[in-house]
Amino acid sequence: MIQIKSPREINLMKEAGRIVALCHKTIDQMVKPGVTTSQINKLVEDIIMQNDATPSFKGYNGFEYAICASPNEQIVHGFPNKTKLKDGDIISIDIGVNYKGYHGDSAWTYPVGKISVENAHLLKETENSLWFGLKQIKAGIHLSDVSHAIENYAHINNLTVVQEFAGHGVGKNLHELPEILNYGSPGHGPILKAGMTLAIEPMLNVGTKEIKIFPDGWKTQTKDKKASAHFEHTILVTEEGYEILTKI
C-alpha cells in the first residue's frame, strides 16, 4: 500500500529534506579537484548531526557511510574514499537524512573543474529529465506517466536509461512503495493521490544502458565505462502538482 502522509509527517519530512538540501548546497561549494569523497562524507555527516538528525544510509543493509559517492562511470551506491577528485571528473552524491523518524532523499551529480562537452550534456539533460518527469506529477495521473516522460526525454537527448535501479516511495521508511521506474509506457501503475511522497531519481548514461554490479553488491558501473549521472528529489504529490521537500 502507498502511504498517504499526514500534515505532521509532511512537516517532519520537510525538515529532513531541508537538511539534505543544506548538505548539497555546501557540497556545491566544496567539489573541486583535490577534494576526496571521504572529506565530503565527513562534512555531510557533521551537518546532519549538527541538525539533530542522523544519516539515513549509514547502517542501511550494512552500508557504512553517510553518502553514496559515485564518480564518472559509477552509477549509484559508491563508497566514499581517499582518492582525490580530478579536473574533468563528475561525481554523483546521494544523501539521505532521518529526522525524528522520517526521511528525505536527494542526489545530485557535480562537475569537477572543467568537464568535457559530452559530460556537460549528460549532466544538463539528466537534471532536465528529472524536471520533465516532475512536471507530469499531480493527483490523478498514472505513475508510469512520470516514468515514460523521463525515458522519452532521455532518448530525445541521446542518453540511455539505467533500468536496474528506480525511484521509490519515501517517508517513515527510506524505501517504501511504489517502485518508480525511469522507463515504460504511459497510463499504467498506481494513480497518484495528494499526500503521497516520492523520490524521483533518473539515472542516465552517455553510452550503453548495460551495467555491471560488482561482487560486493554495492558498486555499480556502466559496462562500456562511459559516464553516468544521477539526479533526485523527494516530492509531495498535491492536487494540482507537486512540492519539492528536499529544498531549503
Could you explain how this protein is built, in words?
The chain is of the alpha+beta class and 248 residues long. The protein has one domain (7-244): Creatinase/methionine aminopeptidase superfamily (Creatine Amidinohydrolase), CATH 3.90.230.10. Helix content is 29%, strand content 25%. The chain contains four helices and 14 strands. The chain has helices spanning 7-30, 37-50, 117-135, 143-156; strands at 54-55, 67-71, 90-99, 102-111, 160-161, 167-169, 176-180, 197-200, 203-205, 211-213, 220-222, 228-230, 233-237, 242-244. The strands form four sheets. It has a five-stranded antiparallel sheet with strand order 7-6-8-13-14. Strand 3 and strand 4 form a beta hairpin. Helix 1 (7-30) packs antiparallel against helix 2 (37-50) and helix 3 runs antiparallel to helix 4 (143-156). The protein is globular. The two termini are 30 Å apart.
